[in-house]
Amino acid sequence: MIKVIIVDDEYYSRKGLRCIIPWENMNCSVCGEATNAYEAIELAKKINPDIIVTDINMPEIDGIEMAKIIKQFLPNVKFIVITGHDEFQYARGAVKINALDFILKPIQVTEFTEAIMKAVELIKKGKEYDELAVEKYFLSIMRGQSSIKGVDKYLDISKNVRLVLINNDSYEEFINANKENLNIQIIKKIKEWAIENIENCYIFVAHSNIIGLIFYENKDIDFELLIKGIKNSTQGIITIAITKPRSPIKLKELYKIAKEVYSTCFYKGYGKIIEEEEQNNIHNNFQSSYEKINNIITEIIFNISNIDIKELNRNINKLFKIFNYYMIRKNVIIKVVFELILKIKEKLKELDISIDNLENIELENDYKQISYLKNDLEKFIDAAIENIRDYRGELEDNTIKRAIKFINDNYNKDISLTVVANSVYLNESYLSRELKQALGIGFLEYIRKLRMEKAIELLKAGYSLSRVAEKVGYNDYRKFTYNFKKYTGDIPSNYKIK
């Protein structure tokens, strides 16, 4: 609200102006009344009014002289002069003090209201200009372009201030979606909220998507309401970075810290309040964690090679916990992850496993959030493991095929499952399961099948019973006869006759 003081030695004139003029409609508030110049001067010192409505003709010091004195400590205050006298010298005096209007009594409400509205418009423009000048001044200090000297004109250096950066994280999304109007709304709503909720707050636009606030330490500000308000009204996401309180003479340092606090969004996420913490772990200690990181990377590659999913997930989480705990710089983390991916590729090449499909998985050169980088790494590792599984599946298929070929070539010899397993370097139990799945019958049944089918062929060719038994792997023709009858339901001699 624009503050107004009414100065007139006549009681009813003052009350009339207070009551008949629609002050609130013009965003004005009558904050005080004075009956003479002395009272008005003291009142002006306390209230710092924007507009003073004054009668000229007052005892001892008239309105013109009073205005000259007040102008010395309130150079931007606007005067509207009222008088019942129409002499030229009064009008000339009003011009000297830059009075906006010179209104004769009796006052016409319309004329007086127009004068106030004109004053309000000029005050608004003046305030916008002043705010812009102060904003530029603070930014020049924070960016190291100007000295801190003179900051005490705006900030009480005996009190600590906080610096807050409010980042519109939806800025690029809205630009790409042709919703620039939402970005404008967000800036407007942040400014309105700050004016309404924070006393003595300086607002500045650091960038097109970042609003900054400077205010004296205040623990009762609920920034969560601002975050929710922006989301509800625009679907926009804002992140608020808040520094610890420091002296205004450290404004440049506060700005740097606020930017560092915001940069931790990479680790902590967006759309929340992030307050300055102790900086012990921020962007440091990479050297002290270097050996740990290398060891974990070695374990991750080992886990991938052996498809040990449980240990793999544990080590990936451990790696990113180190990144988060030490808040290692984003570019370093991205470099470490890229090197890990190269090592995974090299390991697959070493195992003679194709990496063609892995080349299609593109990682970004920059990431807004560490969780996005982790997700992309996990996608890459999942694809690599799938390649290893496919390779192992083909390898195992080939191994089973070799085992079956070995059996087919040696069925007429004294072979066992152990002998076959050793020939293809597989576990005996595993081979037994895979053979049954591939053949539909067990190892011994398959041997018997091969022998009996070959025996039938030889019997039909006219070979003797003893000769057939020998050729299909039986030293004892009686054992052969027993197995033949069990397999065919008939005796060998009947096949020979046929």
Automatic annotation (TrEMBL):
Subcellular localization(s) per the UniProt record: Cytoplasm
All residue ranges annotated as the HTH araC/xylS-type domain in the record: 401-498
UniProt keyword terms in alphabetical order: Cytoplasm, DNA-binding, Phosphoprotein, Transcription, Transcription regulation, Two-component regulatory system
Residue intervals of the Response regulatory domain: 3-120
Residues with the 4-aspartylphosphate modification: 55
Database matches in PANTHER family: HISTIDINE KINASE-RELATED, TRANSCRIPTIONAL REGULATORY PROTEIN HPTR
Function per UniProt: May play the central regulatory role in sporulation. It may be an element of the effector pathway responsible for the activation of sporulation genes in response to nutritional stress. Spo0A may act in concert with spo0H (a sigma factor) to control the expression of some genes that are critical to the sporulation process.
Record protein name field: Stage 0 sporulation protein A homolog
Protein source organism: Clostridium weizhouense
